[in-house]
Amino acid sequence: MQSHDKPAPAASAGRQVGNPFVNFEYPNSLFGEILDWMLAPLLLLWPISIAATNHVANYIANQPYDQALADNVGAIVRLVKIEGGRVTVNLPASARSLLRADDIDTLYYQVIGANNTLIQGDREIPWPTLPEKLEAGKVLFRDERIEADSVRIAYAFLPVRSGLPPAVVQVAETLHKREALSSSIISGVLLPQFAIIPLAVILVYLGLTRGIAPLHLLRDRIRRRRPTDLSPIPVQRVPDEVRPLVVAFNEMMGRLEENLQAQQRFIAQAAHQMRTPLTGLKTQTELALSETDPAQMRHALQLIAESTDRASHMINQLLILARAEASHEKLHSVVPLELDALAREVTGEWVVRALAKRIDLGFEDSGRALRINGVPLLLRELLNNLVDNALKYTLPGGHVTVRVRAGRLAVVEVEDDGIGIPLEERSSIFERFYRVLGTDAEGSGLGLPIAAEIAELHQARIDLLTGKDGKGSLFRVSFPRHWEADQNSPSQARPASDSFPIGL
């Protein structure tokens, strides 16, 4: 059984996958989104504008009429006489008739003496509230109701003498002229808005239509392309806002072109690799048909069976590689699983093959439950390919160890003391159909590319290092840990290492 010493540092060849894609939701219509954001503030501000206009119009309409009321109050105050606490007023008949001369609004006036008695005028005007600080002769305003009419009242207090309440002069007026003036101001301001706002909406719509016209031209240019044309889209006439999107699209098309070319090369290489065993099968079949000696015929049939096994193995590996690259495999069937148990099970399946080659096959576990997220079928194939590769290139009497280690990452290693891989060839071992030169071991050149593809699918890193004491190879696959499953799963007390009884 091999020891637990760490392998010596050496140059490594590896592949690393990036973070998974994140999905975002976008609006269905860019045109509608911009139109909404432009019109929504306009429609929100319009009621505010109406309310503000109404307030300003009422303020403007009140100014001249309040001034007229104040002048009337002042004129009556000048006619009031206070002598010895007695209040009198001499309001000529002409003045009283002038107060009643308005044919639109009704005017009321009132003079109240020190004893809250009506000296002259109309009783309908309500008594005012005394202010905390009395200013003689200052005209104040308030809004009240007389019968069913709203009125505006101007009033002033006149001190009589100490200890007596003040005399009051009030003039009230209904609000018909004010309301008419306010309505005229509001209609003069708002009526144009009823024409301007729909016109603004139409202009915004036409402006947006004109603004996104380059997008329609870009769409038409893309639609006119042939299905096989993956060349970059020229960005000279593309708007600045869309140019980064077109540049990113061109980069994506470039990657797609590279992938298509890689697939075409793969198909050509696969066809070439398949042609060789099929040609051999045909030749061996023709030789078997021409043989009459049973021994020679049996030998030919044995060669046909071996060639069939090699062709079947290659086809199976091609199918596994296609499955690893399929998008649905990347999105489904991912479950939490225990890496120790899977590695132990896979290693056990190769015991008979190791015995047949007189190779010491060992397994070392991590000593605790080690969980990762993955597709069990693909991970089993990854481990099978690494163990198969190690057994192929290890001489009889050699050692192969499958090792699982726990740390920040979940690590599985397959180490052998076989012929090793030269440094100059390590950058090529993950290429499809690549075979290390100078070896006569049978293989399709797909095992390590499949392992790398599966590792990338699981966001894992696969590295090639030199084995212990500078001999052989060590393949290390580092997986992200499934920490939640690790915490919920009770640790299992197992020995730090375990090996199968294969000592030759």
Structure description:
It contains twelve helices and 16 strands. It has helices at residues 30-79, 93-99, 176-211, 213-223, 243-290, 294-325, 327-331, 339-349, 351-356, 376-392, 447-457, 483-488; strands at residues 14-15, 80-83, 86-89, 107-112, 118-121, 140-146, 149-158, 167-174, 335-338, 360-364, 371-374, 399-406, 409-416, 461-466, 473-480, 498-499. Strands 1-14-15-13-12-10-16 form a seven-stranded mixed β-sheet. Strands 5-4-8-7-6 form a five-stranded antiparallel β-sheet, covered by helices on one side. A two-stranded antiparallel sheet has the order 2-3. It has three domains: 29-211, no CATH class; 226-325, Helix Hairpins, CATH 1.10.287.130; 333-504, Histidine kinase-like ATPase, C-terminal domain (Heat Shock Protein 90, 2-Layer Sandwich). The model is unreliable at 1-24, 327-332 and 485-504 (pLDDT under 50). 25% of the residues are buried. β12 (399-406) and β13 (409-416) form a beta hairpin. The chain starts with 13 loop residues before the first strand and ends in a 5-residue tail after the last strand. The radius of gyration is 49 Å and the shape is elongated. With 504 residues, it is of the alpha+beta class. Helix content is 48%, strand content 18%. α6 packs parallel to α11 and α8 packs across α10 (376-392).
